[in-house]
Amino acid sequence: QVQLVETGGGLVQAGGSLRLSCAASGSIFSFKYQGWYRQVSGKQREMVAYISGGIANYADSVKGRFTISANNRENTWYLQMNSLEPEDTAVYFCNADVTLIAGGNFRTWGQGTQVTVSS
Length: 119
Fold this sequence. Notes:
- With 119 residues, the protein is mostly beta strands.
- Helices cover 0% and strands 64% of the residues.
- The radius of gyration is 14 Å and the shape is elongated.
């Protein structure tokens, strides 16, 4: 019913920047929650940043370096990542809790995009 597609991952040197995008499509009325998570192989997926009720929240490890924003006219949200560190290397996933046009809610994940930060 709702699909998410991430773009913008890649390889960057420490101190550099990347911008991730998550485009949502489907029977979307509104978003209750739009987020970014990341996962390192062998470790649990962790929250990076999310917007809910118009308020942005961040993991302590990325505060001051990452910024989440959304353009809900285009059903797209972003993660601007500055001052990247090798520890930020992970697969990044977007996640959304969507209110559907037909009613009800639907929570879904994107397929993930690799971010690699070299030292």
